[in-house]
Amino acid sequence: MMMIFGKPAPLLFGQLLLGIVNGSFYAMLSLGLAVIFGILNIINFAHGALFMVGAFSAYLLLHWFGIGYWPALVLGPLAVGLFGAAIERVLLRPIRGLDPLYGLLLTFGLAEVLEGVFTNRFGSSGVTYSVPRLLRGTRDLGFMYLPNYHAFVVVAAIVVCLATWLVIEKTRLGAVLRAATENPAIVQALGIDVPRLVTLTFAGGVALAALAGVLAAPMYSVNPGMGSSYISIVFAVVVIGGMGSIGGAVFTGFLLGVVEGFTKVFYPPGAATVAFVVMVLVLLLRPAGLFGRSR
């Protein structure tokens, strides 16, 4: 058997693949979190719960309405995005302008409520969602077997992250969003509805979390706690990349996924804490994060 660094090659490459897949979810979740914080200055602690709601949306669309995976990949994020718009209008808008701590506490409470509601309805063990027929099976790469669905998740995450970055950084819409963050009064004077823009931005960040949830549904048990297992690492990703940095969130998400995968091979007990070790080291050397700007 081929050995690399003293470890069997299939084990090493298998963990690398899982690290990249996990990194895809970290990148998408931290991207939505970075969009919401960077543009709206809201620390959305309910992001993990909304990821869970996205996964359940795929399950409910299938079992309640008979809608399969591919339509759910579009309808699920749209539905959860509309729910996010309602959250911003009803809950977050009244406290806008107050200390960001109020938003953090409110979204933390919302996360607990959502997890409680789904736990009461579906139980803590959760439910299963099958891989779509088109993406079942694996490909033999010679040195490892690559599940088709894993490859699809990675490609989809890269496309979504790249498209979101281009919209925020390279389009007129992105320029208007950034301007509304810096000086909403002037943007409003130009005839742009800033409150509606804020609502759409929050809904877009929430839809990114829901899309990650729909992608995760066929890979993991769809359960009420699946978001809480990601949210602490996702916050670490955002901090390491730089609060509000879109590119930093994506790069760091994939990077931490790979680091975590290699840690599982060479030192399994450290896999659960390696993200936070990296966060501490980065903050000691660069308090604003890898791509953040010092204020």
Query: Strands of the biggest beta sheet: in what spatial order?
Result: 1-2
Fraction in helix: over 70%
Mean pLDDT over the residues: 87
| % residues in beta strands | under 5%
How many angstroms separate the termini?
53 Å
Q: How do the helices and strands follow one another from N- to C-terminus?
A: EEHHHHEEHHHHHHH
Poorly predicted regions:
none
Query: What number of structural domains do the residues give?
Result: 1
Shape: globular
Instruction: Describe the main β-sheet briefly.
Output: 2 strands, antiparallel
Class inferred from helices and paired strands: mainly alpha
* Secondary structure: number of strands: 4
* Helix segment tally: 11
Gyration radius (Cα, Å) is 19 Å
Report on the architecture of this protein.
This protein is mostly helical and 295 residues long. The protein has one domain (25-102, 129-285). It has 11 helices and 4 strands. The chain has helices spanning 9-40, 47-65, 69-92, 100-122, 148-170, 172-182, 184-189, 194-216, 228-241, 246-266, 274-285, and strands at residues 3-4, 7-8, 138-140, 145-147. Strands 1-2 form a two-stranded antiparallel ribbon. Helix 2 packs across helix 8 (194-216) and helix 3 (69-92) packs across helix 8 (194-216).
